[in-house]
Design goal:
Number of domains: 1
Largest sheet: 7 strands, mixed
Radius of gyration: 20 Å
Distance between the termini: 40 Å
Number of helices: 9
Shape: globular
Oligomer: single chain
Strand content: 5-15%
């Protein structure tokens, strides 16, 4: 019987050393499970601190999540910190590659900042509950009228409560080596609130993480915080040009920093 218990203990390091597919699934499962455990820890802390749903709970969530990168072998290099030293409300927009984006988000998340996320996330067990307690704004992506209404309410909340909102304008995860066209919601939000936009660009994950090829190595993620884009005086007529300007700036930065990371670490072999 003792020998039977020894077999998995011996197999585990062997598989971690020899099978990239095993490492991929192990890291993915560990990440999801550990985030759910952290959410379970955070729920009573948030309730004790704020009594319920409150954006200040994001401080607790941020402090609990920041260590997860070490377990996954990830490192962040951040440039442009000074651009987040902006007073008052603003909208942060960033590219969206995978659920790992949450780690980068928590790495630089400013105070009084929360996210806009798909409605389905609220049903993700303890993670969904902690998202709700953190003041995350949920939208129904399938109903455009509902999403517009939520964005209008969010703009009012930004001004009334002096908060910041983080939005992924691509609208879905994308690991194709480029940015998807931006949806207009984040830009309507910024214009309605007359709040500046601060673009944040994550370098490509392709040098350490390939979902289809089932590879997940240690790696470096570069985060480039770009200068703010003012929206004062803009109207809904300016939303398209604002979106295009933001897209072009972020795409240029994405290609630049992704190339530099690949040159530093080398491409991930398929």
């Amino acid at each position: 019987m003792d020998v039977m218990w020894m077999i998995p203990l011996l197999l585990f390091p062997l598989l971690m050393w020899t099978s990239s597919t095993f490492v991929f699934y192990f890291k993915k499962c560990f990440y999801v499970a550990w985030m759910m455990v952290l959410a379970l820890v955070a729920i009573p802390l948030c309730i004790l601190k704020s009594g319920g749903r409150d954006i200040e709970n994001m401080r607790i969530i941020r402090s609990l999540v920041r260590h997860v990168k070490y377990f996954l072998g990830l490192r962040f290099e951040v440039s442009g910190w000074e651009h987040l030293q902006t007073e008052g409300p603003y909208v942060i927009i960033s590219n969206h590659q995978s659920s790992l984006d949450v780690l980068g988000l928590m790495e630089i998340l400013p105070d009084r900042c929360t996210m806009i996320a798909k409605k389905e996330l609220i049903y993700a067990g303890t993670v969904g509950l902690i998202c709700w307690l953190g003041g995350i704004v949920f939208i129904n992506r399938k109903k455009t009228s509902d999403a517009k209404s939520v964005m209008a309410d969010a703009a009012k909340t930004m001004l009334d409560d002096q908060i910041r909102l983080w939005v992924f304008p691509e609208g879905t995860r994308n690991q194709r080596g480029d940015l998807l066209p931006f949806k207009k919601g984040a830009f309507h939000l910024a214009v309605q609130a007359q709040a500046p936009i601060i673009p944040v660009v994550f370098s490509s994950y392709s040098n350490f993480y390939l979902r289809k090829e089932k590879q997940f190595k240690a790696g470096t993620i570069r985060l480039n915080i770009l200068p703010k884009i003012e929206t004062k005086g803009m109207t809904s007529d300016d939303v398209s040009s604002l979106s295009d300007k933001s897209f072009n700036l972020m795409r240029s930065a994405f290609l630049d920093i992704s190339d530099s990371v690949t040159q530093s670490n080398g491409p991930l072999r398929h």
